[in-house]
Amino acid sequence: MKKMNILASAALTTVALTGCNDDIEMRRPPKFELPELPVVEDIHQYKAPMYWSVYEYCYVKEQQGVSNSDMDITPSEWDKIIEWVATDLKPYGYDMVCTDGFIPMLAQDDSGYMTHYGSMSLKDLVAKCKEKGLKVGVYDNPLWIHGPRETKIEGTEYTFANLYYNGSTEVMNPTTDDMWFSWAVAENPGAKEYIDGFFKHYKELGIEYIRMDFLSWYEDGKDRNLGMVGKGYGRASYGRALSYIAESAKKYGIFTSLVMPHMYNDAEVEAKYGNMVRIVADTGGGGWWHCSAADKGKSYTNWPNCMNMFDGFTYWSHISGRDKVILDGDFIRLNTFSTDAEKETVVSLQLMAGGPVTVADQYNTIGNNTKFYTNSELLELNADRFVGKPLSNNLNDPKNQIWYGQMTNGDYVVGLFNRNDASATMSVNLSDLGIDGQWKARDLWKHADEGTVSSISANVAPHGCKIVRLSK
Asked: Scanning 42, 52, 292, 464, which has its CA 20 to 30 A from the CA of 351?
């Protein structure tokens, strides 16, 4: 969750496969009936993105007391950011910079859609990035209304005024006003065309990635921390809205990242209509807390279902896979971690789970941490669209610290993660992972061959990991 001025325009020491089973049932989101919705085929063809986000810059400013309306990134600062990303990160596959919330999102032309992120024209930002071989991603939501009410919706007789809740649509919380956002109601006349115009607008700007937030607020108007935050337009409306979004995003070739969804019905709608979905609370202050410690072992029935990355990836691992929805563990701020072992873990976890690697460190905060983002051997997993699974998806089973999966060339990758505060001797027989025979092992962080093995055993540092690639 990123508060923003959206309307500014208008102790285990040993972990082994013999660990006892846990009988605590995880709390999963409830089920709700849906109307029949359209099928949008072949949308899960993307690999997880690798990019830089403005998140840390904005988050730190907000923590320092800078109001969202006063927050900005100047063109000269953008030049420094783009040069750094192009020089230090792009050679390793980080090919995009992306906006986020916090800074005013302004509609300053007749289209009524967002044209400026603070003082920076998106058109100019795209040009700056293109010159350096980078793409631009935008934080926006096709259901947010930016422009004046009298703005015409292209291809219709309707205006933006027709998109607002008008009392005729059944909502879940009719006496509650929407907080922060003006929502376009999916059932209203012109809404489908408005959403299509949104994606057309961004395609014409050269944008290929949209990160859309606060989806749970649209669906039922409830927030676990803030309580009632809006009218809640209902499950059917939410499903219809995401189907419109998926259709237009595919039409214009734009990648969609779904943020803050409740994931009801086992993520039925999100997994069907989104390219990528957030499965954990916001990064915030980052560090080991967000990676593994926050509410460790707990799950909730609505957003956010899990409070740390490790639990989120574990909890939702059953819906991910090659040619399935991508799981997003949110941004990484390596400068907030305490040890090299933790830094290796947070990057490895994202890649083992098939998630994006999103750098939020800045050129003036990253220090000597670039090396953790640029491990070429590990980044091969992303290029291969690798998606691993934990040995157990139970949040309180120590076997969830063992991850494994297979690459397209037949190699396997196995990860041993130590979430504990003390060193742990960890071991796994390959046969217990369904991997038969002897394999050549290579440690992807040590960049060292380790002979031929039929099992993996290591003493893993506190909060550390061992990632091994197995080949014939």
From this structure: 42
